[in-house]
Amino acid sequence: MTERKAALITGGSRGIGAAIAERFAQSGWDLTISARGLDALEETAARLRSIGGRVEVVPADMTDEDAITALVAAHNAAFGRCDALVVNAGMGVMGAVADFPVRRFDKLYQVNVRAPFLLMQGMLPTLRATAGDSGAAKVIAISSITGVYPEPNLTAYGATKAALASMCETFNLEESTNGVSATSICPGYVDTDMSEWTKGEDAIPAEQMISGADVAAIAYAVTELGRYAVLPQAVLTRSGTNLHRA
Ligand SMILES: NC(=O)c1ccc[n+]([C@@H]2O[C@H](COP(=O)([O-])OP(=O)(O)OC[C@H]3O[C@@H](n4cnc5c(N)ncnc54)[C@H](OP(=O)(O)O)[C@@H]3O)[C@@H](O)[C@H]2O)c1
Predict the structure, then answer these.
(1) Which of 24, 60, 92, 144 is the most exposed place for a label (fewest CB within 10 A)?
(2) What is the residue-level pLDDT of the chain in tens, covering all 246 positions?
(3) Which GO molecular function entries does the Swiss-Prot or TrEMBL record give (predicted)?
(4) Measured between alpha carbons, how far is residue 118 from residues 5, 12, 25, 39, 149 in Å?
């Protein structure tokens, strides 16, 4: 009997993270999902358990290093393996360089870059052990198209997402020979709570945005790649004339 696969997904309570969790649950994976809000996590976990598989819920704030350490320990204690680490939890703040408060820049960096780094580092022994001598384990980082192409008023956010993508690239140089590789997925606007402010008739109708399921399809496809196949980056744009815009 083959062992069940396991993933740790941050920001798994809603939006893109919940869509990825659902896609993985449909394929029989065990999951740890994390976010700050316990109620939303429990609600999503109940839905995922009805699809099948074990789901562990671990609340953690990505600005809290001790909470990240505890999240890694909880996932390892529950499943003892990690076939996919999905670093998805993130925050967005708009604002031009001219008057962007530096404390906001610091928080963005903590959540969008420092936390993914700590998670990649903390989970590395488990990822390597899961890959073993012939298998594969994947890190899937939800970056953004704003980390690839410039977008007005998203200087700080875009910089954090470019940093995340860069981390994946270098991680591959260091770890892919151990069977562990990383992919940054860089979508334009996805129909979630985070993009709420830009929806509407005068802006971008929600139904014309990328769906969480679209992002989840790419994330799951990455897990089907073998040990010797590395996808450093996947840019996912909206249709129409905005191809290289969020
Ligand atoms: N939506 C878009 O248009 C879009 C496009 C490109 C990339 N992205 C990226 O995709 C990722 C997911 O975004 P989304 O659209 O799914 O957003 P969302 O619907 O707002 O969900 C964000 C998730 O992250 C969690 N989270 C937020 N801040 C956190 C923190 N400090 N510590 C721990 N968990 C935290 C949230 O739960 P709690 O609030 O309970 O903590 C929630 O589970 C983000 O990295 C975002 O930058 C989004």
Answers:
(1) 92
(2) 578 999 999 999 999 999 999 999 999 999 999 999 999 999 999 999 999 989 999 999 999 999 999 999 999 999 999 999 999 999 999 999 999 999 999 999 999 999 999 999 999 999 999 999 999 999 999 999 999 999 999 999 999 999 999 999 999 999 999 999 999 999 999 999 999 998 877 789 999 999 999 999 999 999 999 999 999 999 999 998 877 889
(3) oxidoreductase activity
(4) 22, 18, 25, 25, 26
Residue 241 lies inside a defined structural domain of this protein: no
Report the C-alpha gap between 242 and 21 in whole angstroms: 29
- DSSP letters along 13-37, please? TSHHHHHHHHHHHHTT-EEEEE-S-
Three-state SS at 95 = strand
| Number of folded domains that form the chain | 1
Q: What spacing in Å lies between the alpha carbon of 115 and ligand 1's midpoint? A: 13
In a domain? residue 1: no
For ligand 1, say whether the CB of 14 is within 6 Å of any of its atoms: yes
From 66, 168, 194, give the residue whose CB has the most ligand 1 atoms within 8 Å, as the site to mutate: 194
Domain range for residue 116?
A: 6-236
Question: In this structure, is residue 193 part of a structural domain?
Answer: yes
Q: How far apart are CA 122 and CA 171, in angstroms?
A: 13
Tell me if 114 is assigned to some domain: yes
What CATH code is carried by the domain that includes residue 226? Answer: 3.40.50.720
* Separation of alpha carbons 198 and 155, rounded Å: 17
